[in-house]
Amino acid sequence: MSAGARTFSLDDTFIEPQVLEPPPTRHALFLILLVLAGLLLLGTAGWGDLRDGIEGQFAGGAREMLANQQWLTSTINGIPQLQTPPLLYWLIILSYKVFGVTVAAARLPVALASVLSVALTFLIGERLAGYWRGFAAGLIYLCSCDTFIYGRMLTPEPVFSMFFTAAIFCLVCGYQRRRFRRAWFAALGLCLGLACLTEGIVGLFYFAGIGVLLAVFLREARMRLPYLLHWSCLLIFILVVGPWYGWIFHWPWPAGFSRWQLVILNLLLWFPASILIGPGLLFASRKVLRSTDFSFANVLPLCWITVLLVPLIVSGAHSYQGLLGTSTAFALWAATLWD
Predict the structure, then answer these.
(1) Got the DSSP string for 77-143?
(2) Which candidate, 19, 53, 108, 273, has a CA 20 to 30 Å from the CA of 337?
(3) How far apart are CA 151 and CA 108, in angstroms?
(4) Sign of CA dihedral 160, 166, 171, 172
């Protein structure tokens, strides 16, 4: 009688991180972060009138969609607004139905998305370097000027950033663990599809760029990320974005900004954590200069920042998609840099 032998793939040889029961401290830190985010973002959503321009466009467009029962195309005074996908309008309409047509109800989806972005930043940081680093990353993101200014402003960018960050979280979970990897990557397709249904199909190219850079720097990424091309992940993404983009094709063409203005603007939006850049790079010089020290926790935030920010600087274009997304990536990078 001969015993059967199992053939292991190269991916099976990598040891997965051990799952331990999280201590009470972790839960307390996460709860503190959520309470602070709720007080600062949800608690102030109704402060001040809606601003003319983009806030009026989305609040008024959602009100007209609700009145006209036209769910695919928003209008302002009867004029179709085709430059933005409809997901944010739908969320505002849902808020109107629950809380009434008020300023707080109009801003509630954006404020809630910002709170969820803080929570996701904590969870990603925890996955990369432990719950204390996750708490630091979430606190950095919550205290940034970017979150303070745009965290409850009625624009699609915070909602886009939240769904994009959720896609990154699914990527991290699927990357680190072979068990349920396809389920996590299928959830990634859903989150990425919702991001594209909020702000535009450009989110798909951002994510693809991050995946390519990870594959360049990490051998494990070249083995694990091809699971993203599984038919279930692609099908979920197509089912989410296909119907509306089949109705009307959209591509956002942002207004111009100079390259130096973009660099300065990001440093200001990352403040006060932006003061950590110099000392952080100094202490982490071995990680940056020696490729043998590269790890997933170090490379992911840098790839994230590079893909979203560098094309904007090179082209001189301006899009809050990139600016808000880099704030989350910078918070994770700043929190995980100080080993």
Answers:
(1) TTEEE-SS-SHHHHHHHHHHHHH-SSHHHHHHHHHHHHHHHHHHHHHHHHHHH-HHHHHHHHHHHHH
(2) 19
(3) 10
(4) positive
User: CB-based contacts of 169: which residues, under 8 Å, 6+ apart?
Assistant: 120, 123, 124, 127
Taking alpha carbons only, the member of 161, 155, 151, 226 closest to residue 192 is 161
- Extract the tokens encoding 67: 């009145």
Do the Cβ atoms of 225 and 175 come closer than 8 Å? yes
The amino acid at 277: I
pTM, to two decimals: 0.80
Question: In whole angstroms, what is the distance from residue 41 CA to residue 23 CA?
Answer: 28
Phi, psi for 82 (deg, rounded to 5): -100, 0
**Which two tokens mark 113?**
């998305």
267/146 Cα distance (integer angstroms): 10
DSSP reduced 3-state for 319: coil
Contact 32, 56 (CB under 8 A): no
What does the alpha-carbon distance between residue 27 and residue 59 come to, in Å, rounded to a whole number? 36
Q: What is the pLDDT of residues 308-322, one digit of tens each?
A: 777 766 665 555 544
**Residues 45-83: pLDDT tens digits?**
878 777 777 888 888 888 888 888 777 777 677 666 667
DSSP 76: E
Q: Coil, strand or helix: which one is 270? A: helix
Pick the range with the lowest mean pLDDT from 57-71, 141-155, 162-176, 303-317: 303-317
Cα distance between residue 203 and residue 163, in whole Å: 10
Which residues have C-beta within 8 Å of that of residue 20, sequence separation ≥ 6?
A: none
48 in the Ramachandran plot: left (φ > 0), alpha (ψ -120 to 50) or beta? left
Write out the two tokens for 269: 């939006």
